[in-house]
Amino acid sequence: MGTGTEKILVIGANGQLGTELTEALRNVYGAAQVVASDLHTPSHPAGDEGPFEILNVLDERRLRELVREYRITQVYHLAALLSAVGEKKPKLAWELNVNGLLNVLETAREGAIKKVFWPSTIAVFGPNTPREHTPQHTVTDPSTIYGISKLAGERWCEYYCAKYGVDVRGLRYPGLISYKNPPGGGTTDYAVDIYLQALETGTYQCYLAEDTYLPMMYMPDAVRATLELMEADAKRITIRSGYNIGAISFSPREIAAEIQKHLPRFTVGYRPDFRQQIADSWPQSIDDSTARNDWGWKPQYDLAEMTRDMLTNLKNLKKPVLA
After folding, report:
1. pLDDT tens per residue, range 262-285
2. Which residues belong to the active site?
3. CA separation (Å) from 252 to 209, 304, 318?
4. pTM
5. Range(s) of the domain holding residue 277
């Protein structure tokens, strides 16, 4: 897949996606070839398996220093404030999500960086977007600062590709589910916490209504999609803003029922909070035919397979970390 000539910088490597993507990239390219970076030293053991640097992506000078020092050829820019946290800190979310991206794009334009990966999100859609099988090109009227900042980022990515030839690629991730790391303050976080609470306490209080359908994806599929997109021939990439990718769509009631097949005594209550309004503005399912046609995207996990794998792996962890 990869070669030893690539030198990769992962920004936001301590996050839910960053931790697993860094591990996957090191498996492909070699640990020494992948530089992890974040605001703080990682607490997990994987942080010791390759180079790590402290980096605030808003510090453009420090970013450029690292790119020069390590002769970086690819950047995976994952640092962001997610939807639920962003609503509490909207100005910080805008600054980090937009200005951080611009620093990366400017550094790529001026230097030797050959590829940039930047994650978008289903939060770029809004209340007037078709909610079923949401198409690649459609109404984007986000109502959260997270979605607004990510939509602006999509436009910047397209601009830098068209204007300056920066090879920037992105995915509109749905909610991501992982047993390895807690999520970082998104509206879809319940789909991780529900598994943890099922094992820890046997009960869960959900902040979304039981019939709220949202697009989701198991982390192994998300990591694989990212690597496959970045390895695809540039001639096959027709979307520079962010590809729709889909995998599973389900409601809290359905994920609870799937868990109860393994843990029959598990109970769930529902008490919707401010995140319900956010969820109600997002799609229920995604049309990802463009990604499938351009570079062969295809998910591997459904709800049953993901639930079986999540519970098995969480049981094997000595001290599961609650989100």
Report:
1. 999 999 999 999 999 999 999 999
2. 146
3. 7, 14, 26
4. 0.92
5. 176-216+247-316
